[in-house]
Specification:
2 copies of one chain form a homodimer. Chain A is an alpha/beta fold. In chain A, about 50% of the residues lie in helices and about 10% in strands. A 6-stranded mixed β-sheet of chain A has the order 1-6-5-4-2-3, with helices on both faces. In chain A, α8 packs across α9.
Chain lengths: ~210, ~210
Amino acid sequence: MLDRIKIVKPAEIEKNSMATIEKELNGRTWPEPQFSVIKRCIHTSADFDYADNLCFSEDVCKKAQEAIKRGASIVTDTNMAAAGINKKRLAQYGGKVYCFMADEDVAKEAKEKGCTRAAICMERGAALPGEVIFAIGNAPTALIRLYELMEEGKISPALIVGAPVGFVNVVESKELIMEADVPYIVPKGRKGGSNIAATICNALLYTMPE
Amino acid sequence: MLDRIKIVKPAEIEKNSMATIEKELNGRTWPEPQFSVIKRCIHTSADFDYADNLCFSEDVCKKAQEAIKRGASIVTDTNMAAAGINKKRLAQYGGKVYCFMADEDVAKEAKEKGCTRAAICMERGAALPGEVIFAIGNAPTALIRLYELMEEGKISPALIVGAPVGFVNVVESKELIMEADVPYIVPKGRKGGSNIAATICNALLYTMPE
């Protein structure tokens, strides 16, 4: 039974995966580090739709990596994305990962205001000192609140990774962010998720000098 | 700009999403709780491939839910899946979620043996007392090690959620599990991920009486 399994050394697994992805992209390439972002999204989902749906604002990767070098933190709307982002790597530049979703006072405030916890979490993120990257992998309401906070002049994110997933206001909230004056990386359409939000952050980190 | 956003109460978001998924499945249905597992995988990925790729062994949901009622724990190969599984809900029945991936001695042992950390983590899981559900969202090597441990008569999992994602041994490792004598839920092919592994566990939990 086990003879169908290819023997691959642990260190080779990712390399071989990336080679397969490049082969199946049939020669399509993008400038780095954009190409790495696209390949990592495919790697984490086995879904080649990400070759077509990922949208990048002008010079976004360079701008985001410069912010990370200056110590930018990352605020996310899901504990799964927070678990997936390489926190050690981010800490090398001084940044931390924050997710306020499980905080009790967030749940309380959301209930009082009749909005989602994710929206309240964005307000918590807006109050952080220093530069902030918002990595959204679940809630369209997080993107909508970020848009409102930008309109009110209360935040100026270093980057918005706009990757909520699903069927209610997901497409629309991503369009809002792509029309705003903010550096963004967005998989347009319904797809995304906490795994995609985390992998986009990691792709940026892994293409920076250590 | 914001007028394109539909006003939906937080509690209604998931309900509306599920209604959209059911509509786009064009009347296709499955017996419960299998249908809930399929819908939740689509909900978490916006990828309707899960309507076709999910494979269930005979009576697997019933068997798994009975094991959970008896206090089964869940062992996973990724911290992201561990973050995503509803631990409070599992704890109501006495179970815990374990992920050994970040343990220092796991990294050390994997290096010494020239295998992946995930394979070592499965051995840690095999040593737990009581019934165990293995929820694999990343590493084919975890599934391969589980297969070997079953062949050696060392484990008898209550359920294997076999949802590694990717391009190296993913398809083959899933086939191994589906040919073994074990209750399984497997998205056949390349797709899966820690979000899928977590959502399958949650779908089982959410269709049980509290």
